[in-house]
Amino acid sequence: MRVYNLVENLCIAKGMKVPQINIIEDDSLNAFASGINEKTYAVTFSRGIINKLDDKELEAVIAHELTHIVNRDVRLLIISIIFVGIFAFVAEMAFRSVRTGRRGKKDGGFIIAIIVVGILGYVISILLRFALSRKREYLADAGSAEWTKNPKALASALRKIDHDPRIEAVVRKDLAQLFIDNPLADKKEVGFSSFANSIFATHPPIKKRIDILDQF
After folding, report:
1. Phi, psi dihedral angles at 68 (to 5 degrees)
2. Could you confirm whether 59 is annotated as catalytic?
3. What confidence score (pLDDT) does residue 104 get?
4. Rg of the chain (C-alpha set)
5. pLDDT by residue (tens digit) across 112-136?
6. Could you give the CA distance from residue 202 to residue 129 in angstroms, rounded to a whole number?
7. Residue 94 in contact with residue 61, Cβ under 8 Å?
8. How confident is the model at residue 107 (pLDDT cuts 50, 70, 90)?
9. How far is it, in rounded angstroms, from Cα 141 to Cα 143?
10. Strand partners of residue 24
11. What are the angstrom distances between the C-alpha of 178 and each of 114, 150, 159?
12. pLDDT for 192 beyond 50
C-alpha cells in the first residue's frame, strides 16, 4: 500500500495513468520501468529497496522510473537493439558467404567490403546504444529531481542502492539495462578493464550521477 500510494500521488501530479506495480522478492536494492504503451507500462521494485529507503528516497526512485515511462525509454531501447541486430545479421551473412568460398575475385571483394561495413556498423551501433542508455539514466535522474523538487533524496537513494544493487534472479544483460543501477555490473574493475567497461557500460557511474544531483 505504501508503494502504491507514492506511485499514485506522483502520477496524479503528472496527470498520467498509474502503471502496474510489481515486487521482486529480493533484499537487494533496485528498480526498473518497463512497457511500451499504457496497457503494458509497469514499475518493478525489489523488496529491499522498499524496506531500506525512507519515503522521500523511495518517492525519488519512483519518479526516476516514471520518467522512463514518460520518455518512452523502453521503446527507444528496443529500437536500438533492433539496429544492433541488423548490423550483426549483415556481418554474419557476409562471413558465411566467405566461408563457402564459391565467389569470384570481384564478388569476394564486394563481400569483404560488406563484412567491414557490417563490423563497423555493429561496433558503432553498440557504442551508440550504450551511450543512449547512459544518457537516458541522466535524463531520468533530472526528471525525478524536477518532479519531486528533491534531488537530494534521489542522491541519497543512489548511495544506498550502490552498496547492494545485485538481483540474483537477473542474469540477462538486456534486462539488467533497465534497472536504476545495473545489477550485473562489476564495480571493482580498474585500469584498462575499467576504461573499456566505461565505454560499454549501460549506466553512468553512480558517483557522477550523485555529483550532478548535488548541484541542483
Report:
1. -60, -40
2. no
3. 52
4. 20
5. 777 777 777 777 777 777 888 899 9
6. 8
7. no
8. low
9. 5
10. 46
11. 33, 23, 18
12. no
Q: How many residues belong to the chain? A: 216
Residue from 65, 92, 168, 189 carrying the catalytic annotation: 65
195 vs 152: CA distance, rounded Å: 28
The cell for 118 is: 557490417
Q: Centre a 10 Å sphere on the Cβ of residue 36 and count the other Cβ atoms it contains.
A: 14
In the block, residue with C-alpha cell 496527470: 15
> How sure is the predictor about 148, in pLDDT bands with cuts at 50, 70 and 90?
very high
Is residue 77 over pLDDT 90? no
Helix axes 55-70, 2-14, angle to 10 degrees: 50
- What are the percentages of helix, strand and coil residues in the chain, rounded to 5? 65, 5, 25
Decide: 213 and 141 in contact? Cβ < 8 Å: yes
What residues are paired with 22 via a beta bridge? 44
Which domains can be identified in the chain, with CATH numbers? 2-75+127-214 (3.30.2010.10)
Strands 31-34 and 42-46: what pairing? Answer: antiparallel
Helix (H) or strand (E) holding 95: helix 73-100
Task: Kindly report the pTM of this predicted structure.
Answer: 0.83
The position carrying cell 506522483 is: 10
> Amino acid identity of 192?
F
Q: Rounded distance, CA 120 to CA 116, Å?
A: 6
What's the CA dihedral at 206, 166, 196, 73 to 10 degrees? -70
Q: At a CB cut-off of 8 Å and minimum separation 6, what does 36 contact?
A: 72, 74, 75, 78
